[in-house]
User: Fold this.
Amino acid sequence: MAEVWQGIIAPPLKGRIAKPRTYGITMLIDKGLSEQETANLLEMDAGFVDLLKLSFGTTALYPGEILTRKIQLAATYGIPIYPGGTFFEIALWQDQSQAYFDKLMDLGFKWVEVSDGSLEIPVSQRANAIKRALCSGLRVITEVGKKDNVQQPDEEILIQTAYSDLEAGAVWVIIEARESGQGIGIYDGKGQVIPEKLEKLSSRLPLERVIWEAPLKSQQAKLINEFGPNVNLGNIPPAEAMALEALRLGYRSDTWKMN
Assistant:
């Protein structure tokens, strides 16, 4: 909360963990912000942002000098920046995963995402990729789930894969929902949470290690009301970073509980 209001207004929703934190994570999805747009975003919202994902394979499209400056800019604010998992999957598909890890380090990335949203990757191969990334000097975030809404794995597979990833050394595991948040993962075709799926996953996974992709405000509010202000949320549009923090603090009617 801005110090100008301290002693006058307090957050209606208590318990928000301050940065630096490992729980209560907000991950933004960057689908092509310019260097200046990134600077503006971080100047205003760095206090609300914990991770910045360069979505899908957009990392391949940045001019090298701009990509380097974006990485350095995020580092200045202490915010990990990393390419989306699809870029890793393409590298693996082309038998270039180790070269990919090495290049990320050369560019200044400190984090990598390992996923199998489009490829079929055995759990053992995922674990091997995680360990190789760690040995390369990278920290690892993984993602479980498929991007094809007609080939969604059941909750048991997601749980088993998540635990395998964590055991291999992943810091967080993301639950796939894509940037639409519709018909994928814990959401139905209209973007509504499917209670049974949420219950199965949340009751068996360590919530402090799980990031729920929740690009829609209704999803963010639902998960905050369900799990509290420090639920880990991802795939947040950059323009919604402050709005999400307002939800976390009870500064919006969706999460303001008056009793």
